[in-house]
Amino acid sequence: MARTIPMIITNKNILLKNRENDEFIPFDMPGTENEMNIPFYHQFAEKLSESQVAFKSFVRDVYGKKLNKNIFAIIIPDDTSALESIFINEFFVNSGACKAVAQMTMGQALSKSEPKYISLSKSSRNIVLQYINNNEVRVRKFYDLNDYDINRIIEDAKRLHIDVEYDEVPLYINNFNMDMDDFFEYGTVITPKMFMDKIAVIDVEKLK
């Protein structure tokens, strides 16, 4: 029987859920350096085979040798592009560490109870607003990480979609990377522990 393994692509590494508990174990590819405005996993393409072998070995150490039973439920940064999403899928499937992958943005994972809400987060290059409705990203808006106006973002959040303008829609502040202090007063803050608890068990049907 296939097993679904939650995994998070953060701003600096990959976190894989431990087989034994709800803790997450970090995977850091040796030789990978932080580059401004460029997600770290872009560097995997420069040494593709080496990166895939290292990741497969990492997964085997945590989950054993039967890797063809794995389905990775990958939580990706909110500003991941379509091309980046394809690369992520291909990287993990072709690594031999799993038989399939499914993805959802971090914003989509912030609530399991609210049918619609606004998520606000920071990636390694953007501030990201998303309107989530029935697990789907209906609208997404980006702001330059190095040049943004807090008041403008909050005002935009109130008008991000017509649903938001005419209904009370909660705003969730994704503080997974511990970098959202400036926005705490404007919505419900999701701490790293709260986020981990939410994705420790994932409904694969809600992923794409």
Q: What distinguishing features does this structure have?
A:
five-stranded mixed β-sheet; globular; single chain; 5 helices; alpha/beta; 10 strands; 208 residues
SSE topology sketch:
Elements: E1 3-9, E2 14-17, E3 24-27, H1 48-63, E4 70-76, H2 82-94, E5 100-105, E6 116-122, E7 126-133, E8 136-144, H3 150-157, H4 162-165, E9 171-174, E10 188-190, H5 192-199
Parallel strand pairs: 1-4, 4-5, 6-9, 9-10
Antiparallel strand pairs: 1-2, 2-3, 6-7, 7-8
Helicity level, as a percent range? 10-25%
Order of helices and strands: EEEHEHEEEEHHEEH
Number of E-state strands? 10
Radius of gyration: 17 Å
First-to-last CA distance: 20 Å
Q: Kindly name the structural category.
A: alpha/beta
In the sheet with the most strands, the strands line up as 3-2-1-4-5
In the predicted model, the low-confidence regions spanning at least 5 consecutive residues are none
Outline type? globular
Task: Please state roughly what percent of the residues sit in beta strands, choosing from under 5%, 5-15%, 15-25%, 25-35%, 35-45% or over 45%.
Answer: 25-35%
What's the overall average pLDDT, rounded? 90
Describe the sheet with the most strands: 5 strands, mixed
Supply the number of helical segments.
Answer: 5
